[in-house]
Amino acid sequence: MRLVLAAMPWQAIHRPSLPVGLLHSLVRQQCPGVEVVEYHGGIRWAEYMMSVGDLTPSDYTRVADNGVFQGLGDLVFSGALYDDPQWRAAELRATAKSFGFDTATVLRMRALTAGFVESAAAEVLLPEPDVVGFTSTFMQNVPSLALARRLKELRPDLQVVFGGANCDGPMGHALHRNHRYVDFVVRGEGEEVFPALLDRIHSGAGVADVPGVCWWDGERSVANPQPTRSVAPGKIPIPDFDGWRDTLEGSPTREHISPELVVESSRGCWWGEKHHCTFCGLNGSLMAFRSKSAEQFWTELRTLVERYRILDVAMVDNIFDMAYLKTLLPRLAAADWDLRIHYEIKSNMRADQLAALREAGIVLVQPGIESLNGRVLKIMDKGVDGASNVRVLRDCEDLHMTVDWNYLYGFPGERPEDYRGVIAQIPALVHLQPPQGESRILLERFSPNFDRPELGFARREPAAFSRYVYNLPDSELEDLVYFFDCDDGGITGDVVDALCAALDRWRRDYPGSFLIMDDRGGEIVVDDRRAGWAGARHRLSGWHADAYRALSRRRTVPGLRTRLEGNGHTVAESELREWLRELLANGLVFADGDGWVALATTGAPTKLVEGAGDSEKVMA
Questions:
Q1: Count of other CB atoms within 10 angstroms of residue 328
Q2: Whether the predicted pLDDT of 374 surpasses 60
Q3: Beta bridge partners of residue 37, listed in sequence order
Q4: How far apart are CA 82 and CA 149, in angstroms?
Q5: Do residues 427 and 457 touch, judged by C-beta distance below 8 A?
Q6: Contact, 518 vs 446, CB < 8 A?
Q7: pLDDT at 614 over 60
Q8: Residue 10 to residues 57, 61, 281, 534, 583: CA-CA distances in angstroms?
Q9: How far is CA 454 from CA 278, 348, 449, 486, 517, in A?
Q10: Which of 394, 317, 318 is nearest to 354 (CA)?
């Protein structure tokens, strides 16, 4: 039996497909009679655009990275799915233009899709497979469906299987019942189900008892109940990325990219088990947190790094396992491999915990900051406030750690005053890393906002772009799609404009801004070289210096006063509040609700400053 595992566009071409790598290893272990071939459609599509369309890998990456919330990648391929190059061409053009994509480039991509699907079909069928398995997440649906349809036209006896995040829950059944050329869909995790399905296909036995599988009973689509038990971490194999490496190394795209490994140490979210962030649907139907032992993950990471000689590692975990601080990080730090690891973390990690991450090579973090206002963060159920989030930005600046975050707004129940206080203080934050962008929240399937209309999104309908992508009625799209349109919640109009303008200025001013604290014991000198502020040196001594040191973490006024009393300083609360207001006016502290935190960094960060010529490094 021969199996082709396919990862279609818009899989990131600089990273391997983790599902393909996992399933390849799994099939090799559990199905020794199955020969596995991989098809890396993302790389092939980038190559095709280079050779036939005179486009570049950067054009591919622009859509892959930035087009998901508009469904742009699916819309590009929808013409190939429906054998109509002009399918919703006006909507494709309008979508590209509205969201800042080059219209001519996007239309050129659309014109190339039919030829690419023919080329892909020829390559996939060359080894004469019995089964082709597609993994689908976000914008991989339509490219995968377009190829699957053509494969079945050319080889009606071929068995086509879909799986992945786009097949979770009702989405998988909708995908199956609306596309007759898809023989099976695996809903939920595939480590236990997929080998069993291959065995049934090979033997010709039925699949009515295989959990989570959608199959055809004549012309009727049947969806077996999804497994309720999650896959134990010990059953997750080390992924095999040989096929991706070989494809990439032989590809003309290779000189355009810096490859990264993709690894997972856990699934689910331990915070979400207790407090599911209201906007987040990323964990799908399985929230239960489970992580690999430090020994298992260390063995996996070491194996992959040594085999592929790649030091950039992107972790796909939704949250860092705090137990790893003691069990895993010391091993990573001792390895001294110069790893550059990206992890999602909780934004309440202490400075010493962040330092342990940095020592272990975790240099890029995504802390889920989302907002700098405690009231809005409470609506999100994030469990932190604005002062705590600013503190983590400051600590990461001290540690030379890159912070990946976006500012979200549009939550039902938020008020203009929740933003005006933040907007007024953003000029004081320009020395800290700004958000990459800002956006109104989307309504995602599986999120509390979706599952609980009483949270404020009573009206929901499939995202408008899905009507352009698929030739299906809303009744089917309601089960098929992940993103939904709804009435805007929260702030609008002038407040949104003011927030966006303030964040734009933050991004503009960050590269050349510094606010550095020199603690000399007897006094603290704060050197202010932030854009928009008159250059100044602020000197703090006595209880002022002790108080500023204490504000290295978020504190309330009573808590700060108690801390000062412990250090032998008796300060009236009124005097303390007056001093804090003075610091606030000088942009030396950030205030949110009853929380205060110091803004000055203790080190001199290195930043890249874009000038008229090449970028230059500036160190304060």
A1: 22
A2: yes
A3: 4
A4: 9
A5: no
A6: no
A7: no
A8: 12, 8, 20, 47, 48
A9: 12, 29, 8, 13, 47
A10: 394
Closest CA to 168 of 469, 474, 480: 480
Would you tell me how many other CB atoms lie within 10 Å of the CB of residue 610? 9
Q: How far apart are CA 134 and CA 137, in angstroms?
A: 10
**Sign of the C-alpha dihedral, residues 42, 43, 47, 50?**
positive
Question: Which amino acid does the sequence have at 570?
Answer: T
Q: How confident is residue 508, by pLDDT bands cut at 50, 70 and 90?
A: very high
CB under 8 Å, gap of 24 or more: what pairs does 82-86 form?
A: 82/471, 83/114, 85/110, 85/111, 85/114
In 326-450, the DSSP E strands lie at 340-344, 362-366, 402-403, 406-409, 437-440, 443-444
Residue type, 619: M
Q: Which long-range contacts (CB under 8 A, 24 or more apart) does 274-278 make?
A: 275/381, 275/382, 275/383, 276/381, 276/447, 276/448, 277/368, 277/380, 277/381, 277/382, 277/447, 277/448, 278/379, 278/380, 278/381, 278/411, 278/447, 278/448, 278/449, 278/455
pLDDT tens track for 90-104: 999 999 999 999 999
Rg (CA), the chain: 26
Alpha carbons 441 and 448: distance in angstroms, whole number: 13
Mean pLDDT of 525-530: 97
Closest CA to 67 of 124, 10, 118: 10
